[in-house]
Fold this sequence. Notes:
By secondary structure, this protein is α/β, with parallel strands linked by helices. It has helices at 2-19, 119-125, 175-184, 196-224, 240-250, 262-275, 292-298, 322-329, 346-355, 360-365, 369-375, 419-435, and strands at 31-38, 46-54, 57-62, 72-75, 80-83, 85-90, 129-134, 142-145, 147-150, 168-172, 254-259, 278-284, 301-304, 333-335, 392-395, 406-411, 414-418.
Amino acid sequence: MKVVISRTILFIIFVLALLAPESYLLAAGNLLIKNATILPVSGPPIPGGEVLIIDGIIKQIGKNLSAPAGARVIEASGKYLIPGIIDTHTHLALSGTNEGTDAITPEVRMADVINADDPAIFTALTGGVTMVHTMHGSANVIGGVNVVLKLKWGQPSEKLVVKEAFPTLKFALGENVKQSNRVLLPGRPQRYPATRMGANAIIRRELLRAKDYMTQWERYEKLKNSKNPPRNLLPPRKDLRLETLADLLRGKLYARTHAYVATEMVEFLRLAKEFGFKVAALEHAWEAYKITDELLAAGVGISVFIDSWAYKMEAAEGIAYNAAYCTRRGILVSINSDSSERVRRLFNEAGKAVKYGLTQDEALKMITINAARQLGVDHLVGSIEVGKQADLALFDQHPMSAYTRCEMTIIEGDVYFDRQQILKNREEAAARKGGN
Length: 436
């Protein structure tokens, strides 16, 4: 048994070595992509278009462009160039997902447990994904602070973090919260909450505690800065949990909320209005089509699966037209994977939206610019425009086609996935092995 395990580990190491970005990352930051059909998202398609990238930034878009000395030229005739795909809800690249021992854990941070060696990063790159919003799980009513990453495979974790993105805090409602304590802590007494009403109540309780905490600090700061501060004045005790919730109430964090059922989503929107915090998006949101008026009034978007509904009771009233209908109503919709495997085929998921009534352009937006807007990075990525970061994906057919595949994935002008180069590496490795 030990021999089998060791061989498996060696095989994985060998494969990852073949895929290492150092083996095919060329002309870092400087590229000229020629003769592609460009789907910029921000405008109409550009047949036979070219994109010049200098130092990782898109400098020119047009035709008959010239590459500076040393720049890599990529011939893309017959291929489609799109903005890098953005996944607004994943759990990849983490060495931990749920701190399930307590219902309330806003003090934990996903940025502290980034696993830059997670093979799922490379899996995502093979599907044209360049950025992910990787999140605390849904075991807790209030989870941790999430992080947005660029999938720079082979780079240290600190180079993956997108600091310009909205800082977000994970909330969760419904079945996962009610049942997770029985799953994660079998044999122990069931923790509070065990009902939907309990979930609402515990959120209100913790936010009230955070308001009191803020009041204590405001009083302390006022006294400290007064003309005659008390001689025995001491600051309140720091509480990391309440500090995070206070930042939510101050507008420094955005809520991202796992929810399925219309009634619980409406209740959460009421909590947000009551306490004045911002909701960036509702996650999964299978019954969002029932509450589009409420979502529009609150200015809240949704991050959803395109199908796969009815896989548990609270998804029983999900419909395949959810994303399309909400888009038509004017809600900001993105499609997510919530999976380290499905992440590689988000373009297929978006393509399904065409079947349910959207145009190809509308479907493509749900995995590019819409996702960028939900994460607060649309000024940087999400469309192919001069001045934006060169996060791009090259497909051999239209990305909404059922037969397409990603040929190349580029992040800030660096090629992190090149299908042809990988095939070449494999052939060379096989030849070397045969020669031995």
